Amino acid sequence: MSENPGASGGPRAASLQSLLGVMEALPDALVISDQDGRIVAANPAAEEMFGYGRGELDGQPIEVLLPERIRGLHPGHRAEYYTRLDRRWMGSRAGLFAVRRDGTEFAIDLTLNALQTDEGSVVLAGVHDLSKRTHIEEALRASEESYRELFEGANDIIYTHDFEGNFTAVNPAGLRAFGYSIDELGRVNIAEIVDPRYISRARDEVVSKLKGATESEPYELLTHTKKGAEVWVEVSTRVIMEGGRAVGVQGIARDITDRKRAEEAARESEARLHAVAANAPIAIAEIDGEGAFMLAEGLVLERFGLKAEDGVGRSALRWFKDYPQVVDHIRRSLKGETVHGVVEMQGFVLDMCWTPRFGEGGAVTGVVMLATDVTERARAEEALRSASEFRDLVMESTTDAIAAFDTEGKFTLVNRRVEELTGFSAEELIGSPFEMLRISEETNGPSALTMLLRDGCAVSGHESEIRRKDGERRVIRSNLGPIVKDGAVVGAAGIAADVTEELRAERLLASQKLLLEMIATGASLPDVLDAVARTVEQQADGLKCSILLLADDGRTLRSGANSGLPMAFFEAIDGMQTGPDAGACGAAAYLGTEVVTVDAETDPRCAGCRDLLTAHGLRSVWSTPILAGDRTVLGTVAIYGPRPGAPDPRHRPLVEVATDIAGLAIERSRTERALRLSEAQYRNIFERNSAIKLIVEPGTASIVDANSAACAFYGYTRAELTSMTAFDLNTLPRERVMEELARAAGEEKNYFQFRHRLASGEIRDIEIYAGPFDAGDRRLVCSIIHDISERKQSEALLESHRHLLEMIASGAPLQDVLDRLVRTFEEHAPGALCSVLVLDAGGTRLNHASAPGLPPEYSRAIDGIEIGPVVGSCGTAAYRREAVVVTDIEHDPLWADFRDLALGHGLRSCWSMPILATGGDVLGTFAIYYGEPRAPSEQDRVLIEMATHVAGVAIARQRSEQALLSRNAELEELYGQLVRAHGALAESNDHLEEKSALLQRALDLERERGRIDTLTGSLNHAAITEELRQAIADADAGTVGIAMVDVDGLKVANDTYGHQTGDDVLVSVADALRRDGVIVGRYGGDEFVAILPGADRAAAEGYRDEVLASLAGARLADPQTGAQVP
User: Fold this and answer.
1) pTM
2) Nearest 5°: phi and psi at 712?
3) Maximum alpha-carbon separation in the chain
4) Handedness of CA 118, 122, 123, 124 (dihedral sign)
5) In CATH, what number does 505-673 get?
């Protein structure tokens, strides 16, 4: 035997026989040998340990108990030990082995004590079999390896932190979840991760644990990742105890892992593993019947201050007084009871055995005590227990299934969640192969466990289908890792989650999305309902589905879809009536609530359809009404089962989706039908209206719709207009457009005037009558648009015309009038340049009168040109006495002699109109030039007519005034001559007065002629204007009636029948207006004014009616065709 000898502190004579008696009662193995190495005695425990019978070791050499490889060294060690008997010394060495009788070796702890007996010096050897401790250490290592696999591979987050909230460990799942590195998280406090609103909850949970709470429900916390993203976690926590005191908090949270926690836990685990001591010394003591020490040997007692030489005679009860448990053991043993217990003393753990000794008559004469220092073993056991408790806590707290397997794929470890998932108990699973749960490898492919054991690589996120004990199929998603020992895979451990409902929900969500897409893309109602029924049947295995639609009468159900049901059944239920006893579907539609028929053969509601159901193998029905948004019934969705039974709760989300989708589809179909009818009616009104109409969304100014009139007016297609906004048409700033739209939508204003831009770029004046209306959840504005460009232009022209006539009437110089006339035309005709040329007194040449916009060089060049048949536009027009339109100067022969002149000044087209006097004489020309080839528009013609008319009036007025002035001068000269002749010739007064009256009448006649419109014989503009001013001034003295007359359609008459007919119309109107006491004047063009002095409203209205009746009876005839002019 390889010894680690110890020497006693001084030999003491003792009775060998007494010692042998004590040894017989002790449970530990003891062997006594002499100086020659012969075994003197071995107690039964030693004989049993080494495999010998009673007394077979006596007398044998001690080397028989040693492995053969070291027997030769032992005599030298023994001799060295006996040289030190003068002092006590003991100790131990690691790596001691002994051999049993059958030749097997085993590790031991050895304690040697030298004793002096009556027979001489002997050595007492205490032998402890370390196989049990080795087993504990191996179990601890296995537990730590298992714990490490669970910690590192867990899907859940496992972490610890101290009571300051500083993390001490987090597994890899936590690092991934929160986005920190292990070093960063070591500097993070839990308060930086847990939302401030939830930190108090986390603290409360820890406080409750510290106060003694052993269990608590998992609770939820809101946490934040490194980047600030929110993460919700479900947490279970416990207080970590170490050495009897709380040192921190350990938690398990779903979906979070932290490697630091695993590393810290691994370091702590390693520290516990290496804390197991290498030996466990023993102590032997004998106590007499009074409780006093008779013998006290061993290192253990010395550790507590009891030495062998001074222990004898001392009271054991007093010496152990600070350890009540030991005192109790001594007293119980003195009463005859063998007591065994583990006691903690001064930081050491002792395994103590108290055995009573009996004397004659069975009385207790003493107690033998054997104490073994099992401190390291106790620590190892405590570490193993803590690790096991932690492993068990992790396994039982997590919501994932955790299991371990051997190399054959058989279960070696399962947690509670595995039992719940599979329906098998732990006892049924342990030792059974995982493959017993598999559906079929052909269907699912190899399992994750098969792949791991085959390839030796970890498998993550593998999905497979299993069959529970009750036959139900479930889908699991697993993560598996190999268990490696000495470089070889010895098994596997992993975590699995039941994802059946998750996948079912995903399939349902995908189906719902597909069905909604069908509705959104306009699929027909039958197609949508068929798809709904197929979806129900695909996701509810073995069940059939029908969809019935409630007819418009509210009593009849019509077939909508029935995917897998026989056509005969489908036809039979079509047209069924609703009612409380009309089967599940009829009752559900009648009551507006779901109706369940557990067994069609016994349910009284199914009396009318029982034979139909049973004939097609349908025993249970679950019918749910399809409800509209206002809770009215639209139809039913029914699920049929082949066996009696209540609905499966797992199918409820499927039915809810089916009824929701069917309801949406039915409502959409009905809405579309109503919308089509409404749209047809709307389109009929909207399209056939000749008024321009736009529908505008006021919030965005988007054009929603436009009728044909709008497309024609703006020059865009409907598609183009409905892709535009009001900003694209309106010339106002966007802000103003939005303000006006808001006022229209709010009904603050319904009439607007804007300027709109057409597709051609032309700007038109429009008026809008706008009215808001609601289209579903949208408020729109309907705009009825009228083009008032011509009216606006006419108003502007009329104003300009009026102003020009006032200039003429007020006697403004001809040059000012003509200059104003030209500028007015150019303002109303952008890009135009105008000129007025006046024919000289000889009627052969045109002289420059006004052309402020033309180049001066050009005006000078044409000043004084002689009129003729080919003299540009103006010379030709004056010559021909008609309008001359040259659309392209460069190619028109009329401009042959002036082409270079015109083109040199950028003039490409010229239209010229002769200015005619009332009698038809040419007064001059009015010409319009453009810088591009161009023909006159209708607007241009209106402008030209107005311009030539005004120019003619102005020129004629000037010439009339000049003639009048000349005539007045002549008359005045004549009058002077007459006066002079009077003095000279002494004519009679009668003759002179006659001459004077004649002269006065001539003067009055001439003045009157200046107030009369030469065409109609009524007052001209200046005269009637003066009469109006006077009438208004005299209105204070009494009433006055004024009639404004506008001859409609005069332009049409001119264009259709000629200007002569138009003039006749004007003359007829003037004649009709004349009445006694009525002052009639031509205000201008087609407008007349009638002044009725002293007339009230009734008299004025009577005058109006008479004039209209007179005109209605007058019919003019076309002088050429004889056709009546309307």
Assistant:
1) 0.33
2) -65, -40
3) 213
4) negative
5) 3.30.450.40
